[in-house]
Specification:
Layout: H1 2-17, H2 31-51, H3 57-63, H4 68-96, H5 98-121, H6 125-137, H7 141-152, H8 158-186, H9 191-209, H10 225-248, H11 253-275, H12 284-287, H13 292-317, H14 330-336, H15 338-358, H16 360-380, H17 385-413, H18 419-446, H19 458-478, H20 490-496
């Protein structure tokens, strides 16, 4: 505690010396230059933490002495914790300050990373799993970065920052899968967690340097504890059913029970939120006229896009003697999908420029159409590493445009005081869509195995990629219902008022 207090005091003095805070802690003219890199690193750390285990799950199974299902829980546990924390943190950030919630989230990310790293070094599966849960609770950082940026970044620069934060959800995810293999080859399995810990420290120090603006929403109302419990239970039941459906069996009693529980708990949550004086999630931000279409296409594009990043490492590591795949190591698999992350980074700064010309909705549709092209390429042109890499490059552009424009659309449609809540809801819908897409894609591939064997056939991958391409095309059509606006629309007006 004393160390944290000393660090905070040192950061305050440094911030004033650098001219980032005024005498009373307020923002200065220099603050705007520092905010974008700080919030982008914070978002990168959280996004990278989610996927950093994907490409090396088989190694975790070996080192922690668990089966494939147990290793998969290192990913599932993060997603469950993030699903619970993200919308709650967005609402609390609006009420109590986004700066404060970002600090709490980054501390959880740091502690969770250290716990997971030390536990992995000692072969302690329960400890590694607990660390992943703590890391997942840091998912609430993501929506709060939007809220803090909206308060501290000038209106003329905000569209670019919003697009960058939105794209970071995909960039960080791709970076996690790309970096894991080479990092483990160069060091050890725990290195993936030390990487996240290092990013968390950098983001934490940067956030401490920034001023803490006043909360944008009223904090007089009592917290909606019942709504929070019901929301958490609904998301846990839903994601457990989706993530474990293939393992337990889609028609098994546990999966059917979880699905029914998710429906009942979700209905109760809606009833409670309708009657709450200060609801945790304002349902207008979920199904309101302006945000309903945006949230719908978020789920759909998440389903289509996350199938690729889930299946590509599996495909690349398939032994070539099966008639397909390349027999790559986790390290080479990461390099094969590196174009996805690279072209996401290229697309991120282009998104706000395109949005000013053709509108954020059109940019999203371009991204979804490119996703369909890239996924179709993976479905029918996956026999050579070069064609797979080229399809990955197209997907990188698609992710950057689609996710970057979604952030702009949400921020533009939400009131200033609801920024954290609205982006939190949209973020969790990406997670839910991604979980659904990954589960469906893996189920298609696994179901292609011939009777009496466990090895999937090539047709399973072809079908899964082709189905994902059709889902991406569906997102193009659904996006027509989204209100057309540029990324510099009402956001700028709000901030300049």
């Amino acid at each position: 505690m004393w160390i944290a207090a000393a660090l905070a005091a040192t950061a305050l003095l440094l911030a004033r010396k650098l001219g980032l805070r005024g005498p009373n802690g307020e923002a200065t003219s220099r603050t705007a230059a520092v905010v974008p890199p700080v919030v982008l690193v914070a978002a990168l750390a959280v996004a990278l933490a989610q996927t950093v285990v994907v490409g090396v799950l088989s190694l975790f199974a070996h080192d922690l002495q668990v089966d494939a299902v147990g290793a998969t829980w290192l990913l599932t546990a993060f997603m469950l914790a993030s699903a619970v924390a993200t919308p709650i943190a967005g609402r609390l950030g609006d009420q109590h300050g986004h700066h404060r919630l970002i600090l709490v989230g980054l501390l959880l990310l740091l502690v969770g990373s250290v716990v997971a790293a030390v536990s992995t070094d000692h072969g302690w599966y329960a400890g590694a799993l607990s660390g992943r849960v703590l890391q997942g609770l840091a998912g609430g950082v993501f929506p709060c970065t939007f809220g803090l940026a909206r308060q501290l970044v000038p209106s003329r620069r905000l569209p670019g920052v919003v697009a960058g934060l939105s794209a970071m959800f995909g960039v960080g995810g791709a970076a996690g899968m790309v970096a894991a293999g080479p990092l483990v080859d160069a060091s050890n399995l725990a290195a993936v967690f030390w990487l996240v810990a290092g990013l968390a420290v950098v983001a934490l120090i940067g956030t401490l340097l920034l001023p803490a603006p006043r909360p944008t929403a009223s904090r007089t109302a009592r917290p909606d504890l019942l709504g929070g419990v019901l929301l958490a239970a609904t998301l846990v039941a839903l994601l457990l059913a989706v993530s474990q459906g293939r393992t337990w069996g889609w028609s098994s009693l546990p999966v059917l029970g979880l699905a029914c529980a998710a429906i009942v708990l979700g209905a109760l949550f809606v009833l409670v939120e309708q009657r709450a004086a200060a609801p945790l999630v304002d349902l207008r931000l979920l199904v309101g006229r302006q945000l309903l279409a945006i949230n719908a296409v978020t789920v759909v594009i998440g389903v289509g896009m996350f199938a690729a990043v889930t299946l590509l490492p599996l495909f690349a590591q398939t032994p070539a003697h099966l008639g397909y795949g390349f027999g790559y190591s986790p390290s080479r698999s990461g390099l094969l999908i590196a174009p996805i992350g690279l072209f996401m980074v290229i697309a991120a700064p282009l998104t706000p420029r395109l949005a000013r010309r053709i509108g954020a909705r059109a940019v999203f549709q371009v991204g979804a159409m490119l996703a369909a092209v890239g996924l179709a390429g993976l479905a029918f042109l996956h026999h050579q590493p070069m064609t797979v890499a080229l399809s990955g490059a197209v997907l990188g552009l698609a992710y950057g445009f689609a996710f970057g424009s979604l952030g702009s659309l949400v921020v533009d449609a939400a009131a200033v005081e609801d920024t954290g809540t609205a982006t939190g809801i949209n973020t969790i819908l990406r997670t839910v869509g991604g979980a659904i897409g990954s589960a469906i894609a893996v189920a298609i591939v696994a179901g292609s195995a011939k009777p009496g064997t466990t090895a999937p056939t090539e047709s399973g991958y072809t079908t899964a990629f082709a189905a994902s391409a059709l889902v991406a095309l569906t997102a193009v059509v659904l996006a027509a219902a989204v209100r057309s606006s540029s990324s510099s629309g009402r956001v700028s007006a709000d901030l300049s008022a």
